[in-house]
């Protein structure tokens, strides 16, 4: 199979699973050529150096009776209790609202099939970008965004999952709203005259060696996509979450995650620019400086 370079891969919301035993990285993301329309499934790529990849490999393709047909977004793959679980966002047919569902497979390259009965996020909420968080007691949570269209000031929320990842336990807790941080800016939308709106996108977690718990999340600065960082004061998913004053990345990129490369380097996976069909994966080295995350100067 011919190798493909980062500059030739159209992908949003990149998510990397390093498999050290194989010496391979598995790259997942929103891979439809028009992710704002009909969803065809998700592809993955496999590589050894974060520069060239084999693929695409089809890892999820919906059956005819699947509960969504538009907006297949942000697949993340997590190993949990011996299987691989994909958390991905879909727009439901029955109410036209976004929600994050759980799919499962015995293999990183799928095929992934529905595991939860539709989205596990609240049915009457417009929710997206759910990620799996397993706390210090081994209990699973889903952390996700509630869309600005419903609340104006977009939220990041958390709720416990059942042990089998098929449903939620209790009611979601709002961890913070976008305007709690200083760096995002609001925007107006003709559908909501006079309302200041803020976006929350793509929460993901990084646990530092000293136990600090960081969350990456995306929003906009003057209509340009950007990535921010929050740190949990308690070291737990429920926070309280303290926001960095300035964005970590503000060059028209966002919806990122962090992982360790095989040489030990701490890496950021992000897509940029934020315009379809030009989105490409970008990998940047991150350093921890006095308890904060910074992009390492090259």
List keywords for this structure.
298 residues, Beta-xylosidase, Tachylectin-2, Chain A, mainly beta, Glyco_hydro_43, GH43_arabinanases, glycosidase, 1 helix, five-stranded antiparallel β-sheet, hydrolase
Describe this structure in words.
The protein is an all-beta fold. It has a single domain (85-295), classed as 5 Propeller (Tachylectin-2, Chain A). 1% of the residues lie in helices and 54% in strands. It has one helix at residues 148-151; strands at residues 4-5, 12-19, 24-30, 42-47, 52-60, 68-80, 83-92, 98-105, 113-114, 127-134, 140-146, 155-161, 168-177, 187-189, 192-197, 201-207, 213-221, 224-232, 241-243, 254-260, 266-272, 280-289, 292-295. Strand 12 and strand 13 form a beta hairpin. The longest helix is centred in the middle third of the chain and has 4 residues, at 148-151.
Secondary-structure element series: EEEEEEEEEEEHEEEEEEEEEEEE
Q: Which sheet architecture does the biggest sheet show? A: 5 strands, antiparallel
Outline: globular
DSSP summary, beta strand count: 23
Strand content: over 45%
Number of helices: 1
CATH superfamily heading: Glycosyl hydrolase domain, family 43
Numbering strands along the chain, what is their spatial order in the largest sheet?
Answer: 1-5-4-3-2
- Give the distance, in angstroms, between the N- and C-terminal Cα atoms: 32 Å
């Amino acid at each position: 199979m011919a190798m493909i370079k980062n500059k030739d891969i159209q992908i949003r919301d990149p998510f990397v699973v390093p498999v050290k035993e194989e010496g391979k990285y598995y790259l997942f993301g929103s891979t439809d050529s028009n992710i704002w329309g009909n969803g065809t499934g998700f592809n993955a790529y496999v590589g050894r150096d974060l520069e060239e990849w084999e693929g695409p490999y089809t890892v999820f393709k919906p059956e005819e009776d699947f509960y969504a047909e538009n907006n297949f977004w942000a697949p993340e793959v997590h190993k949990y209790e011996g299987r691989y679980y994909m958390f991905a966002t879909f727009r439901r047919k029955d109410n036209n609202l976004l929600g994050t569902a759980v799919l499962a497979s015995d293999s990183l390259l799928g095929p992934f099939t529905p595991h939860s009965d539709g989205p596990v996020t609240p049915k009457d909420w417009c929710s997206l970008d759910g990620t799996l968080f397993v706390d210090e007691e081994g209990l699973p949570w889903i952390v996700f965004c509630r869309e600005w269209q419903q609340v104006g000031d977009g939220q990041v929320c958390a709720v416990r999952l059942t042990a089998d990842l098929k449903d939620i336990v209790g009611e979601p807790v709002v961890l913070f709203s976008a305007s709690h941080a200083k760096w995002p800016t609001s925007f107006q939308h003709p559908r909501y005259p006079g309302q200041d709106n803020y976006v929350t996108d793509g929460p993901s977690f990084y646990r530092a060696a000293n136990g600090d718990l960081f969350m990456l999340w995306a929003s906009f600065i003057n209509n340009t996509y950007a990535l921010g960082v929050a740190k949990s004061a308690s070291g737990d998913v429920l926070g309280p979450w303290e926001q960095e004053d300035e964005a970590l990345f503000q060059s028209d990129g966002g919806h990122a995650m962090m992982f360790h490369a095989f040489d030990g380097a701490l890496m950021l996976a992000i897509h940029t620019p934020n315009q379809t069909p030009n989105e490409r994966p970008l990998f940047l080295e991150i350093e921890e400086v006095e308890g904060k995350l910074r992009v390492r100067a090259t």
